[in-house]
Amino acid sequence: MHPLLTSLGLPDLLEDPESLSKLTDEQLDLLANVRDEAADALDLEPDNEENIDAVYLSHMTLTSALFLRALTADVQAQALPPGSVLLRSWNGSPLRIASKEHTAEMVVPTATLDVLNNAGLPAVAEPELTFDEHPVRLLSLMDLPSGDDEDTSDEFFSSFWRIAFNSYEDAICIDERADGIVVMLDKEWGYYAQQFVNSSVGHFLLCLEAWRVMEVDAGDDVDTIIETFERSIERIDPAALTEGAFWSDCLDALDDSDEEDEA
């Protein structure tokens, strides 16, 4: 195993959320370097098990640490209005309300149920998201291999309710275990790699509306438009702007695109 991964206490570290959340920025940067170097080496030797392990362990540690950092961020999300008010403030494509029958088994805060039952979610929304007609247990959509880890996999995935997916088929889910936060699970990594999206489905809906407003802004100053969007996300749900979170990555992509246009 790579010396840095060993020094951090991997693979046992992955089972220690408290220690993961305390990894420093320097350690996270080193993990990213190990992952990238091992991935480059795999291009030359695709069957090298040492490099395969290094890529997996470094990526899973990095994404888990960033997810936990967002989850435990000492910031306060905006207080949510009732679902009926969210419905009236939405100006995108029509929202589809989930029936109480479809949410009866969800163990989530009442505010989450209020949004799903009284506001709803769109069929599609930018950035390139397609929504399920109603929340669906992710486990019911997966074909997990049987074996020694079957019970562990069932336990891990049983708390996720998929509400949407992107063009890569990554799953955007409500997580019962984390009080109904919205998280994206990366399909390429077997849905085990997690990315923080929003503190709740209501905050997710508000951020989607902020993105829609940004896209229809007819102003000429692209930097100002992006900055206005960033301030909106910061007001709605500050944790969504922590490093590695979904909306933070979206902003990074916007900045990179803007820089390319100026070049």
Q: Could you characterize what this model shows?
A:
The protein is of the alpha+beta class and 263 residues long. It has two domains: 3-71, no CATH class; 75-263, no CATH class. It is built from eleven helices and eight strands. It has helices at 3-7, 17-21, 25-44, 49-71, 83-89, 100-103, 110-118, 150-157, 201-216, 222-236, 246-262; strands at 95-96, 121-122, 124-125, 129-137, 160-166, 171-175, 181-185, 194-198. Strands 3-4-5-6-7-8 form a six-stranded antiparallel sheet. Helix 3 runs antiparallel to helix 4 (49-71), helix 5 crosses helix 7 (110-118) and helix 10 runs antiparallel to helix 11 (246-262).
Please supply descriptive tags for the structure shown above.
six-stranded antiparallel β-sheet, alpha+beta, two-stranded antiparallel sheet, 49% helix, 263 residues, single chain, 2 domains
Distance between the first and last residues' Cα: 41 Å
Strand order of the largest sheet: 3-4-5-6-7-8
The portion of residues assigned to helices is 40-55%
| Largest beta-sheet characterization | 6 strands, antiparallel
Radius of gyration: 19 Å
Q: What number of domains?
A: 2
Class based on secondary structure composition and strand pairing: alpha+beta
In short:
The protein is an alpha+beta fold. It contains 11 helices and 8 strands.
Describe how the helices and strands are arranged.
Elements (H helix, E strand, L loop, with lengths): L2 H5 L9 H5 L3 H20 L4 H23 L11 H7 L5 E2 L3 H4 L6 H9 L2 E2 L1 E2 L3 E9 L12 H8 L2 E7 L4 E5 L5 E5 L8 E5 L2 H16 L5 H15 L9 H17 L1
Antiparallel strand pairs: 1-2, 3-4, 4-5, 5-6, 6-7, 7-8
Helix pairs in contact: 3-4, 5-7, 9-10, 10-11
